[in-house]
Amino acid sequence: MTTEQLINQIQTKKSFLCIGLDVDLNKIPQHLLQTEDPIFEFNKAIIDATHDLCVSYKPNTAFYEAYGIKGWQSLEKTINYINEKYPEIFTIADAKRGDIGNTSSMYARAFFNDLNFDSVTVAPYMGKDSIEPFLAFEDKHTIMLALTSNEGAFDFQTQNLEGKELYKVVLETSKSWKNAHNLMYVVGATKAEYFTEIRKIVPDSFLLVPGVGAQGGSLADVCKYGMSKNVGLLINSSRGIIYASNGTDFAEKAREEALKLQLEMEQILN
């Protein structure tokens, strides 16, 4: 998917909502456990109920890998279902990969060619030769960790290096990498006060923003400081939407929560 297609979808749906499909069998409705593939059945119902309110789905691969080969098969069925039924949706493999070049090439092939995701999250700690293999894929996007929403982000990301925070060095350096136009960045909603500084470095790049909802991030603050001329934001909500109910009405309740965010986004866009 091209960036222009993503922007068009945002404009059409009046939404920049990304829904995280982080499926925990201990949290999904009990009646689904009787089905052949509970993870896929849960995802399918959530997707069918919310696809018109969001522009992106983001399965975190850990929630699938934890269940072995069956979990991976559920992930494959989920991405295939989205691509076949709702091809306009931007898909994110939240895998946080990143290794030496030949290994990253294999990771990129797995998510872009085999599973046909539009994007994948990566960790930049090993530098450009661990990220450029992902960037080599045309019309695919690499979403690099920049400033995350977790408490431990302050251990390294905001440390001052000769007068500049590490996350700023990461952002500035990444702009020089080959095919850097395919880069997006992860910036946590709980770090809203940093968005102004981030936009000075990457004014037009898309930012994937976790932390709205269950983690306490403010949508209004993120938009105030982080929105670009083309919106440039994908606001992720996972638990607050998909686990709005653990009863038979789970998909309906998920839609209600997604609609609340979509309407707030529409108001901001207007």
Structural topology:
Blueprint (H helix, E strand, L loop, with lengths): L2 H11 L3 E4 L17 H13 L5 E3 L3 H4 L2 H18 L4 E8 L3 H14 L4 E4 L5 H8 L5 E7 L5 H4 L3 E2 L2 E2 H9 L8 E5 L7 H7 L5 E3 L9 H8 L6 E5 L1 H4 L7 H20 L1
Describe this entry's structure for a reader.
- By secondary structure, the chain is an alpha/beta fold.
- It contains twelve helices and ten strands.
- The strands form two sheets. The chain has an eight-stranded parallel barrel with strand order 1-2-3-4-5-8-9-10, surrounded by six helices. The chain has a two-stranded antiparallel sheet with strand order 6-7.
- Helix 10 links the parallel strand 9 and strand 10.
- Helix 2 (38-50) packs parallel to helix 4 (68-85) and helix 5 runs parallel beside helix 6.
- The chain is globular, with a radius of gyration of 18 Å.
- 46% of the residues are buried.
Compose a concise summary of this entry:
It contains twelve helices and ten strands.
Entry keywords:
single chain, 270 residues, alpha/beta, eight-stranded parallel barrel, two-stranded antiparallel ribbon, 12 helices, 10 strands
| Overall outline | globular
Q: What structural class results from the helix and strand content? A: alpha/beta
Terminal Cα separation, in Å? 25 Å
Mean pLDDT: 94
Given as residue ranges, the uncertain stretches (5+ residues, pLDDT < 50) are none
Number of DSSP strands? 10
- Reading the helices and strands in chain order gives HEHEHHEHEHEHEEHEHEHEHH
CA gyration radius, whole angstroms:
18 Å
- How does the major sheet shape up? 8 strands, parallel, barrel
User: In percent, how much strand structure appears in the residues?
Assistant: 15-25%
Count of DSSP-assigned helices:
12
Strands ordered across the widest β-sheet: 1-2-3-4-5-8-9-10
Helix content: 40-55%
